[in-house]
Specification:
The chain is built from three helices and 16 strands. The protein is of the alpha+beta class. Strands 1, 2, 3, 4, 5 and 14 form a six-stranded antiparallel β-sheet that branches. Strand 9 and strand 10 form a beta hairpin. The chain is flat and about 60 Å long.
Amino acid sequence: MRIKVLVPIFLILILIGGGIFYWYFLAPPATFPDQEEIKAVFSDSYNKVDIAEIQDTIFLDEKHVHIPFITEDESYGISFWEWQKHEWQLSSFSTGSMPLIWKIDANDPSSHYILWNFHPENDLKYLSFFLIKERGFSVSDGKHQYDPGIQMDYREKVGEKSYGYSSIPSDWQEFIQAEINRMEEMKPNGLFADFFPPAQYYFGWQSTSTDGNNEYPSYPNTNGFGSGGSSTEYLRFLSEDEIFIR
């Protein structure tokens, strides 16, 4: 008799637990917050950013949104919003004059986007982006290995808008996926596998203004900052002598 009573109770608990799990982790995204709600998140006691203008709302997919913005002190910023735990969360933002790469899924290069937002006074014509792996030489168990240097690049027009974004090109995706696979194969099995170093390549950028200037576009001269735990990475600004292939 006791078992007959416990079984339906157990099933009810499973259904309740499953419903909570679905609601918390699997439910489709709710309507994205309006501009006043977005500004309120930025200006709260944690972020402390006063927004003058929300420039756009760009859905990279149904759960990841890019919001470019302008602050009260004329900094041009980028922010990353994610649908997590049944709410839209500001996962990361930056007001620095530098592009970022957002790796929505670190193990899926097709989900990697480069995003930027520069003050119009910089008068930029286009941005050039680079993926660079420097050449290297190593010896392991008496075996010598030489890794040639690799550089890939592509160019994006800035256009009339101060902000923009692009997914990384297919050849970048193929290279990064190959590096991910190679590093996974090299990882030791056991306790210290998580401490194995990541693939040794990095992302860089250059800008070119309408008058042909390639210097760092630093207008306005304010210190940028960022916050949050999203999978983002700043690109390294490259001087002419750091670019070894044309």
